[in-house]
């Protein structure tokens, strides 16, 4: 017996292929949507985690800034206390400056030079006196410049010729002078003394070994 299929089999096959295509397309869209949702959720979790880390870091930075301000305040207070301590030490050390000044004048005045008046204004000292000659004044300037650990930068202000009457018949020509000199602070004088001692020790000959 011969069977003849009179149904439109081509349209049925085409429909089956179309249905399969739509099914696979829907499945692919569903899988893609699921993957996109998973990726989106993963990125959201990463963003939230990073935001939490940023918030933590900002909180730590604020805390560190506060600590830095406290440290800066403490450093300023320490510097102020050190300055006060140094000022007190300088005052205590500089109490003896007038004594050192008079001692140095006695040591550095050459023969034939006499101090008539002395005025101190801070570290500046003004001397007025009488010398037998200009050479004596020059010697005094050299002594103050080179041989005194306490006095420095001597400057001759003026020198004027004058006369001194030793008696009614005996009059001597003299030089009236005014000079300025700087009195070192105790710390500066100590450094100068230590430097001179070190230089003299270095210049001293080393004893020969036997």
Can you describe this structure?
The protein has 210 residues and is an alpha+beta fold. Helix content is 61%, strand content 21%. The protein is built from four helices and four strands, in the order ααββαββα. It has a four-stranded antiparallel beta sheet with strand order 1-2-4-3. β3 and β4 form a beta hairpin. The chain is rod-shaped and about 180 Å long. The chain starts with 8 loop residues before the first helix and ends in a 7-residue tail after the last helix.
Element string (H = helix, E = strand): HHEEHEEH
Number of strands: 4
Strand content: 15-25%
Question: What is the terminal-to-terminal distance?
Answer: 145 Å
The number of helices is 4
Mean pLDDT reading = 83
The value of Rg in angstroms is 50 Å
Enumerate the spans where pLDDT stays under 50 for 5 or more consecutive residues. Answer: none
Helix content: 55-70%
Structural class, judged by helices and strands? Answer: alpha+beta
Rough shape?
A: rod-shaped
- What's the main sheet like? 4 strands, antiparallel
Walk across the major sheet and give the strand order.
Answer: 1-2-4-3
Features:
210 residues, alpha+beta, four-stranded antiparallel beta sheet, 4 strands, 61% helix, rod-shaped
Element layout with pairings:
Layout: H1 9-93, H2 97-108, E1 113-121, E2 124-131, H3 134-146, E3 151-165, E4 171-183, H4 186-203
Antiparallel strand pairs: 1-2, 2-4, 3-4
